[in-house]
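Example 5.3 — 4-carboxymuconolactone decarboxylase
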Amino acid sequence: MTNLRDEGLNVFREMLPGILPADLPNEKVNFGKGFANELMEIGIEGIFGRLWSREGLARRDRSLVTLGILIALGAEDELESHFRIAKQNGLTDEELAEVVYHASGYAGFPAANTAKAAALRAFKPDHDL
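Solution (predicted structure tokens):
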């Protein structure tokens, strides 16, 4: 049976390819030292290992839910990563733009505008949304 850390690292690698070297064994992955150095480990196990690996929703659907929550929270740093994850999970640029438009009605224009800026930063190397 796979432990939550290993499962989380596998999901993380699938959704954010290139962030962690694919040939680096899970037991060698170290997210650093210093202040709150366990935070990423908590996220890997609890979010990627426990939540993103559940069968109840497809990853594409989880991306839609996650983006809505992060937009409402105004979580800029996480939005950037999750826009990339959403594309990896099959959402198109047009669908991602619709998420931003839809959020403007429920989370407000400032939150949607923040999300648009995060998406532009996330995709700058590829193209503009």
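Remark. The longest helix spans residues 59-73.
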